[in-house]
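## Example record

The block below lists the input lines for one assembly entry, exactly as stored, with component labels intact.
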Amino acid sequence: MGLLGDRRTKGPETIAPLRPIDRYVFDVRGYLVFDQALDRRTVARLRQVIDAQGLSPADETIERQRFGQGGRMFTWDSAFADLIDHPLALAVVSELIGPYVRLDHAYGITMRPGTAGLGLHGPAQPFDASQYYLHRMGAMRSGLLTLSWALCDAEPGEGGFGCIPGSHRASQPLPRGAESLVVEVPQKAGSLLVFTEALMHCTIPWNGAGTRWSVLFKYSPGSTAWDPTPAAPAEVVAGMSPRQQRFFQPPSVGGRVPTFDS
Ligand SMILES: O=C(O)CCC(=O)C(=O)O
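Predicted structure tokens for the full assembly:
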């Protein structure tokens, strides 16, 4: 069986369910990695397009470890917008967020060897109405949900994404010393890491041989916004496919066009 369940994607509007093992892993850990979600050609194309932008080299600061914010990434090449409604992304967000989904914001991460990133962070306590994880009546529901596409290998010991597995279900505040519970999550180029922002997570200092490259798409329920600005300006969204455009509706409950047809 492939990355998706038995009912494989037949056309653009058919959304395959996640496999039971993926549901279980996400429910107990709060994150999930799909290997080989992108083929080598797609990874190479995305990397080439990023290289062609002549970005300032990454340094110690978070500002210089981020790129493509505010929808800029989507102006570079349609390959970035194609990640928004990649079949695996559709399967993940429909299952973990529900029928109404927005793309809240998107950006890339680049890190030079030897640099550190964000410390341990997660939802505001005791309850964060935009970053939460609930399991009700057999359905998993996440607030802000990150899909992080790796465009380089992050081998064990090289750093990158780290988290406290299962912390999305914690009912106690984060205690001092919890850093010792962080585990590194290695990722091969082309893999997709999915995590709920209710999970305590961080960037472990980057010790890879080369520069780190990932692109992160943060989705939220249709009713909420985490970022105060749209994920991309209207003129950029206008150039996308009708299905991609549905992810850019402003936050609301009433008056939404359903994100998915099926
Ligand atoms: O380094 C990572 O993959 C995690 C990044 C992160 O937590 C963030 O950008 O909010």
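Helices lie at 20-29, 40-52, 72-76, 78-84, 87-96, 234-237, 242-245. DSSP finds seven helices and eleven strands in the chain.
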